[in-house]
Amino acid sequence: MNIIEQLRRDEGWRNEAYQDSLGYWTIGCGFLIDARKGGHLDDEEIAWILQHRIDKTAKRLSRELSWFSGISDVRKAAFLNMAYQLGVSGLLKFRHTLEYASQGRWDDCAREALDSAWSHQTPRRAQRVAKQITTGEWQ
Question: In CATH, what class is 52-135?
Answer without folding.
Answer: mainly alpha
